[in-house]
């Protein structure tokens, strides 16, 4: 505090003009004006108060570093928050057991993994924080040097995923069977009796040379796994390891102008703007045939990007700094078009896939049926598995059906 000395009315007026808002507020709260010879509450040139109310302007370098630090903190906090919760129940001689599965970061580790907590049967009992338990036994899910495939890296970017490890999973909750991507492959495990011992996941072998993305188990037969590889639909029979390519619309050519179609993969706009990252849906039911075989159905989206502009961008996924080619619908230009089709896959009484895959399509295209609708926003089966529903949106986003 500066030493007190008598100030003239003119000096007091000048001090009030220079005072900070906090100082003015403090002065205005006084019950009476200062009497002659009475010093002000504090000096308007106090260095500490001036630094508080008028902080030093930061340089561009300091501002950039502050933004980086904030983003790093937000990312670290977001990655530690558990998510993707699934409840499961098991009837036993001791009564009903309830277990909550989720993705989270185990203590002292840095990557996501499958975790669980056991829920007490007595809801009235006072319980502190439930301890997290790992479902998997010493499993490292991040690829070596974080080298994701190009398809996986692009999908992570569109989902805004920055966490490592297991970032998604599919589950048959009735049998507590889990399917998840890790280390550029697929793994499966089963929590048979809700034991307290971690389980060892088993890799799903494949003959596909490319990445397998968006893997999902058939709801009515968890031995059948669908996935997308190389822009086409595939299926794997976990019982005997047989794989089957279901569609042949993507040719894998180096020039994207000659290879505009994909199956089971939503367009760029749908992923970015409508948060839909899957392009196929298993039917929840099946048909039982007279010879003992069963027919399963998959609804899938076929995307044609023939009219979408191709951009050439320096690669962010290649160490050699090559050029990537992307279909990107800029504002005012043409979008991709979508077609819905259904695949019928038959499994014989012994669990083997039959050779014939039947493809069914609409008599009239979606563009003919709904000419004013631009985007296929959502699609799925009704609960009985007999019909499908879709949600369409106009380009102006003023009409939704």
In total, how many beta strands?
21
- Measured distance between first and last alpha carbons: 71 Å
What percentage of amino acids are in beta strands? 25-35%
Give the overall shape. Answer: globular
Structural class: alpha+beta
Q: Which bin fits the share of residues in helices?
A: 10-25%
Largest sheet: 5 strands, antiparallel
Can you tell me the residue ranges where pLDDT is under 50 for at least 5 consecutive residues? 19-31
Number of helices: 7
Order of secondary-structure elements: HHHHEEEEHEEEEEEEEEHEEEEEEHEE
C-alpha Rg (nearest Å) = 31 Å
Structural description of this entry:
The chain has 401 residues and is an alpha+beta fold. The chain has helices at 9-18, 21-28, 47-53, 60-79, 150-159, 268-274, 366-369; strands spanning 83-92, 95-104, 113-119, 133-134, 170-172, 177-182, 185-190, 202-203, 213-218, 221-229, 232-237, 242-245, 261-263, 280-288, 294-304, 310-314, 323-327, 337-347, 353-361, 373-381, 388-394. The strands form 6 sheets. Strands 13, 14, 15, 18 and 19 form a 5-stranded antiparallel beta sheet that branches. Strands 1-2-3-4 form a 4-stranded antiparallel beta sheet, with no helix packed on it. A 4-stranded antiparallel beta sheet has the order 5-6-7-8, with no helix packed on it. Strand 2 and strand 3 (113-119) form a beta hairpin. The radius of gyration is 31 Å and the shape is globular. The N and C termini lie far apart (71 Å).
How are the SSEs placed, and which strands pair?
Blueprint (H helix, E strand, L loop, with lengths): L8 H10 L2 H8 L18 H7 L6 H20 L3 E10 L2 E10 L8 E7 L13 E2 L15 H10 L10 E3 L4 E6 L2 E6 L11 E2 L9 E6 L2 E9 L2 E6 L4 E4 L15 E3 L4 H7 L5 E9 L5 E11 L5 E5 L8 E5 L9 E11 L5 E9 L4 H4 L3 E9 L6 E7 L7
Antiparallel strand pairs: 1-2, 2-3, 3-4, 5-6, 6-7, 7-8, 9-10, 10-11, 11-12, 13-15, 14-15, 15-18, 16-17, 18-19, 20-21
């Amino acid at each position: 505090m500066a030493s007190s000395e008598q100030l003239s009315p003119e000096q007091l007026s000048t001090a009030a003009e220079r005072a900070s808002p906090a100082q003015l507020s403090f002065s205005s709260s006084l019950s009476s004006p200062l009497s002659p010879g009475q010093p002000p509450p504090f000096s308007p040139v106090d260095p500490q108060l001036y630094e508080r109310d008028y902080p030093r302007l930061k340089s561009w370098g300091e501002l950039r570093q502050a933004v980086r630090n904030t983003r790093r903190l937000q990312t670290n906090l977001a990655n530690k928050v558990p998510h993707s919760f699934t409840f499961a129940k098991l009837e036993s001689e001791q009564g009903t057991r309830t277990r909550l599965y989720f993705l989270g970061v185990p203590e002292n580790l840095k990557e996501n993994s499958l975790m669980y907590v056991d829920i007490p049967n007595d809801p009235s009992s006072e319980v502190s924080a439930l301890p997290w338990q790992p479902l998997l036994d010493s499993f490292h899910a991040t690829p070596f040097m974080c080298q994701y495939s190009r398809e996986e890296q692009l999908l992570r970017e569109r989902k805004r995923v920055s966490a490592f490890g297991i970032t998604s999973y599919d589950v048959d909750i009735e049998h507590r069977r889990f399917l998840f991507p890790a280390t550029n492959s697929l793994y499966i495990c089963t929590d048979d009796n809700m034991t307290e011992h971690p389980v060892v996941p088993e890799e799903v072998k494949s003959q596909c040379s490319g990445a397998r993305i968006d893997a999902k188990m058939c709801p009515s037969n968890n031995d059948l796994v669908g996935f997308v590889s190389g822009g086409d639909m595939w299926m794997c029979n976990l019982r005997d390891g047989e794989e089957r390519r279901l569609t042949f619309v993507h040719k894998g050519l180096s020039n994207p102008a000659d290879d505009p179609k994909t199956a089971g993969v939503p367009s760029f706009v749908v992923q970015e703007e409508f948060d839909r990252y899957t392009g196929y849906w298993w039917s929840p039911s099946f048909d039982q045939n007279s010879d003992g075989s069963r027919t399963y159905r998959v609804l899938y989206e076929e995307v044609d990007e023939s009219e979408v502009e191709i951009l050439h961008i320096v690669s962010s996924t290649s160490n050699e700094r090559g050029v990537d080619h992307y279909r990107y619908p800029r504002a005012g230009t043409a979008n991709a078009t979508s077609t819905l089709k259904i695949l019928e896959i038959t499994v014989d009484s012994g669990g083997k896939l039959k050779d014939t895959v039947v493809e069914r399509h609409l008599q009239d295209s979606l563009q003919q049926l709904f000419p004013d609708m631009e985007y296929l926003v959502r699609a799925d089966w009704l609960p009985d598995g007999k019909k499908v529903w879709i949600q369409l949106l106009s380009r102006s986003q003023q009409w939704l059906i």
